[in-house]
Amino acid sequence: MASEKQKLKVLITVKTYPIPSKKYDELVCTAGVTESGDFVRLYPINFRDLPFTQQYKKYQWIEVNAVKHEGRDVRKESFRPFCDTLKLIGEPIPSNPGNWSERAKYAIAKKARSMEDLSDQQRADRTSLGIFRPKKIHDLVISADDPEWPPKFLQALQQQRLFERRQKTLVPPRKVPFKFHYCFECDDPRCKANHRMMIEDWEVGALFWRMVDKGASHKEASEEVREKFLNELCGSDRDTHFYAGTILAHPTSWVVIGVFWPKVQVQKTEPPTLFN
Question: Do 124 and 117 contact (CB within 8 A), yes or no?
Fold first, then answer.
């Protein structure tokens, strides 16, 4: 029995870096939350093929018709969108200090205590998306990766685009020749303080290639990513949370798919008076 079509209203919170896909041409996994704070995953979305009027930004509300994924993707948050029904709703919620609370009202409405809790939920009901606040972020580790996509991916991509006779031809997204991992511990007695999770946030690849296009070497660009994602997003003045999601091919493996990083709110105290 086919899944029933639903109209979803979703606040976009994260996009993963696009990768060539043998089945879906080019895969961008988009995640967000509903007005009640429930997480939703939308894929496949070939974001670069969307008309400009449908190219959503982070923390922008969208509406789209979708059906639950079937077959091998049993993750409870996964939906297959009908991209021709996708509509943007208003402007993105801005990032200036006064609006982080508006973002937080939805983004962390149902946050988990820790990665340990998310893993428990995954085993209990196939939870595969969530957000939590790490207790301490120890490092961001950079390691070398293959500089090119596997040839079989590129061949499948070329064949599919020829078959579909696209009006516009897109080159595959550039492959970032590094992997980036957060090393952190959770505020949970079960945590062994040794979490190491790959970062698959779209903004990692975008920042890397932006720096390269400005003349930086690959090593310099990777260090800029580290500076941004460790020292700025996870700085002592930030109330940092990680968006986390599982990988379809390895359903018990979690990666960091985005960062929520408002400034720490300093509680103002009234000066003492004669009456207190």
Answer: no
Q: Does the residue 172 lie in any domain?
A: yes
> How many structural domains compose the chain?
1
Predicted structure pTM score: 0.89
pLDDT tens track for 38-90 = 999 998 887 877 888 899 999 999 999 999 988 888 899 999 999 999 999 99
Inter-helix orientation angle 202-213/218-226, to 10°: 140
Helix (H) or strand (E) holding 202: helix 202-213
Which pair of tokens denotes residue 234? Answer: 């996870």
List, for residues 153-174, the tens digit of each pLDDT value: 667 666 655 545 444 556 778 8
Q: Is 270 part of any domain?
A: no
Q: Show contacts of 189-192: CB within 8 Å, 24+ apart.
A: 190/114, 190/116, 191/114, 191/115, 191/116, 191/135
